[in-house]
Structures are given as C-alpha cells and as structure tokens.
C-alpha cells in the first residue's frame, strides 16, 4: 500500500471526512504525486503549506506526504502556473513526488479533535458540540460536530482562564475583550465557554455563553459579543490549531499507521518552520 493511501486511511479513522463542512471546505487527498519519492516513509504535519515549509519538506528526501491542516487547494483553478503562490507550491510538490492531504474542518469536529483539545486546556467540565453532526455524518464517532460548548465543573475568574489558555498554547500574550460584567475578577465568574478553532465568529455568534474562545473575530463581532455580556479571548488564527499537531495528532497518526506496519514503519514529524504570521512584539 502506498504511503499516501496509508495516511489517508489513518486520517479517515481519526477525522472522518464526512464531518467536514463539505458545503465549502476542501478536504482529503488534494494531490497524489504521479511519481512518489522512492522509499519515502515520513509524513510532515503543518498548519499551512508555505514556501518555508515546502523547502523543509523538499530538503528531506524521506518526506513523501505533507498533511496540511489548511488546504493549499481551496477554490477552483482554471489553470496552473508558477506565478501563483498556491499553485507554485502544489506544482513543486507534484514535480518532487510529494503528495498532500488536508483534514481541516473534519479535524476540528471529530472526537479528540482540535476543538476538544482547546477545551481540555481549560477544563474540567462537560464538553458538547455547538452544532451536533447529523447521524449519517458522524463516521461512527460520538459527541462530534461543529464547535464546542464547555460547561465548567466549577466557575472560574476570567483571568484564571486566560492564564490556562496562555500556558496551554505556550503564548506570552493573547487578545482579550472583557465584557463589563467581567471587568474585574470579583465580578461574574465564567461558567459556559463557546469554543471554535481558527476564525470562529460565524459558529460562536449565535451561542449564549460567558466567554468566546477562538483565534480571531472581526472588530464588529467582538463589539456585538461584549454588548451581550460575552467576553472574548482571541489567540490568533493558527495559534488555536498548531499546538494540536504535536500534542495530539503526531501520536495518534503514528499509532494509526502501525495498523499497516507490514508495509514498513512510518515516521510522523511536525514542521519546524510552520508558525503564525502575526507576532505581538
């Protein structure tokens, strides 16, 4: 069995593609190299396929598959040229025998996925999906769907939760919009938290919660949240996703790939070059 087939089968067990937002997302095998690299037995995990991540992959002859959380092929293309950044990256992968797989929103919505991991940084408590998956799209998993609601076992001050998020995401700074009722820790405690990795306004906006935890929201979405006594914690888009690769996915994918170990061992590594483009200096 090819390395790409093994990765695709393993990822389907971890994050069934039926859980993705198929109405707009682009997930699964995005590129199957016509001539795969010989003897490639390494999978590179990244949030974004950038020029630096691509260089990292191509410099390592063992890398045969890139699992890029964000799909480098998203909207339809009518042509392929080296002058277009995304097309350039994909063409270089094809020319060098490296395939691409993207799980994106299926990995957000699955059991023990990105949103469950974010909730675990704050818990303990009860975790449920904001929008449960339809029964025919769960892929056999339970308690899955879009976003997460974390009902804390014990209410906490907002400052305590901010500290837990910083520690879990290994960040020195995050953006916070405090609703008037959370202006000080002596005021209302946080009990109910709505969570969505990445850009979460469309998922979180309709939800009644004490706190929204996501990567980014627009200025006006933040104002609307604060006006209804919901504070917001914004850690930047990919900072809410990247830590999951090393903390969870690397180990899970390695274990799932052992199912097909008769085809040889596979090494799963996390990109050293992948990072959020926005820094607070």
Task: Annotate the secondary structure layout.
Elements: H1 3-14, E1 28-31, E2 42-46, H2 51-59, E3 63-68, H3 85-95, E4 99-102, H4 105-109, H5 114-120, E5 125-132, E6 145-156, H6 158-169, E7 175-177, E8 190-199, H7 201-204, E9 211-216, H8 219-227, E10 231-234, H9 242-257, E11 267-270
Parallel strand pairs: 2-3, 2-11, 3-4, 8-9, 9-10
Antiparallel strand pairs: 1-4, 5-6, 6-8, 7-10
Helix pairs in contact: 1-9
Summarize the structure.
Helix content is 30%, strand content 23%.
Report on this model:
With about 280 residues, the protein is α/β, with parallel strands linked by helices. It has two domains: about 5-105 and about 240-270, NIF3 (NGG1p interacting factor 3)-like (Udp-n-acetylmuramoylalanyl-d-glutamate--2,6- Diaminopimelate Ligase, Chain: A, domain 1), CATH 3.40.1390.30; about 110-235, Udp-n-acetylmuramoylalanyl-d-glutamate--2,6- Diaminopimelate Ligase, Chain: A, domain 1 (3-Layer(aba) Sandwich). The model has no long low-confidence stretch (mean pLDDT about 95). The protein is globular and about 60 Å long. The strands form two sheets. It has a six-stranded mixed sheet, with helices on both faces. It has a five-stranded mixed sheet with strand order 1-4-3-2-11, with helices on both faces. The longest helix is centred in the C-terminal third of the chain and has 16 residues, at about 240-255. It is built from nine helices and eleven strands. The chain has helices spanning about 5-15, 50-60, 85-95, 105-110, 115-120, 160-170, 200-205, 220-225, 240-255; strands spanning about 30, 40-45, 65-70, 100, 125-130, 145-155, 175, 190-200, 210-215, 230-235, 265-270. One of its GO terms (cellular component) is mitochondrion. Keywords: Metal-binding. One of its GO terms (molecular function) is metal ion binding.
């Amino acid at each position: 069995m090819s390395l790409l087939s093994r990765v695709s089968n393993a990822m389907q067990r971890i994050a069934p593609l039926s859980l993705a937002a198929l109405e707009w997302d682009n997930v699964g095998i995005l590129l199957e190299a016509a001539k795969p690299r010989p003897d490639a037995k390494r999978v590179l995990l990244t949030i974004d396929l950038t020029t630096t991540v691509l260089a990292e992959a191509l410099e390592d002859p063992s890398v045969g598959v890139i699992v890029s959380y964000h799909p480098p092929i998203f909207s339809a293309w009518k042509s392929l040229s080296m002058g277009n950044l995304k097309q350039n990256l994909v063409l270089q992968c094809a020319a060098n025998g490296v395939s691409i797989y993207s799980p994106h929103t299926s990995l957000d919505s699955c059991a023990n996925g990105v949103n469950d991991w974010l909730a675990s940084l704050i818990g303990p408590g009860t975790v449920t999906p904001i929008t449960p998956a339809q029964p025919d799209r769960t892929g056999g998993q339970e308690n899955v769907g879009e976003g997460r609601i974390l009902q804390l076992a014990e209410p906490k001050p907002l400052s305590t939760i901010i500290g837990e998020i910083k520690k879990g995401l290994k960040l020195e700074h995050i953006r916070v919009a405090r609703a008037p009722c959370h202006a000080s820790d002596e005021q209302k405690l946080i009990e109910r938290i709505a969570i969505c990795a990445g850009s979460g306004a469309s998922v979180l906006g309709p939800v009644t919660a004490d706190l929204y935890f996501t990567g980014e929201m627009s200025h006006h979405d933040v104002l609307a949240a604060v006006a209804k006594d919901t504070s917001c914690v914004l850690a930047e888009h990919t900072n809410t996703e990247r830590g999951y690769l090393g903390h969870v996915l690397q180990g899970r994918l390695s274990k799932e790939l052992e199912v097909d170990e008769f085809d040889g061992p596979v090494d799963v590594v996390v990109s050293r070059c992948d990072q959020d483009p926005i820094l607070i200096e």
